[in-house]
Amino acid sequence: LPQIINQALAPLATTIGTTLSHGWEGLTLGIDLWYGKKKLDYQKNLELYAKQIQDSISEIPENELQEPKMNILGPALDASKFYFEEEQYRDMFSKLVAGSFDKRCNSAIHPFFVEAIKQMKPLDAELMVYFSKTPEKFYPIVNHFLRDKDNSIEYLDKLVFLIDEPVSPKYYSASITNLIRLGLIDVSFTSWLKSVNAYLLYEMDPHLALIKEEISHNSESDNLSVELEKGFLFLTPLGKDFVSICI
């Protein structure tokens, strides 16, 4: 596999190829120690990972190449040995590794991105791919709550996020919470989107209709109403840098 990388780097400076080759040897050594003799399954994924790194680096114009940022390359290769078997992680780590060789990425790349990838589950990564398509956009999000006759409220579901089709109110909420924790996205409920149809998907959500039906069958529900607290979410500056490098 180091030969695969070196072939990709043939037109590049020898020192750059040597640096990546040494890093790759460290990666594969760690894998051998971790998996022992179990190579049949992960070797194919390792080759795919090598090919993705090769392809990403080959797209960098030669005049934009640099000696890699070792505080990115070293931790990224070391961490990725536990993650490259899943496509989302291979994609993000290969782009992060390539970014360490690219001068154009210097203003956006950050050592924290290694930890951010490690602390995502696949659904979190899918959301970041979705947000990366329109990184400047504000996305509608809601909370479900009960209001009683005294105008007191009780939250039912928080951080309900829908994309194209109805899912459980809790389907994305843990991922949204984690991405907020990582500082990649932020959420506001102090204001909401003014577009007429911004929250139509939430208002027509069959899961919301089911909640309202269940409440209406409650003997104490006469003075209760199920309502939406409207808000929006958006990529933070760190999140925009993350998608520009890793997505």
Q: Beta fraction of the residues?
A: 5-15%
Largest sheet: 4 strands, antiparallel
Compute the gyration radius: what is it?
Answer: 23 Å
Class by SSE composition: alpha+beta
Cross-sheet strand order for the largest sheet: 2-1-4-3
Principal-axes geometry comes out as elongated
| Low-pLDDT windows of residues | none
Question: What is the first-to-last residue Cα distance?
Answer: 24 Å
What does this structure look like?
- The protein is α+β, with helices and mostly antiparallel strands and 247 residues long.
- The chain is 50% helix and 13% strand.
- The protein is built from 11 helices and 4 strands; from the N terminus they run H-H-H-H-H-H-H-E-E-H-E-H-H-E-H.
- It has helices at 2-8, 14-35, 40-58, 70-80, 87-99, 112-118, 122-132, 173-181, 200-203, 206-216, 237-246, and strands at residues 139-147, 153-160, 185-188, 225-235.
- It has a 4-stranded antiparallel beta sheet with strand order 2-1-4-3.
- A hairpin with a 5-residue loop joins strand 1 and strand 2.
- It is elongated and about 75 Å long.
- It starts with a helix and ends with a helix.
- The mean pLDDT is 86.
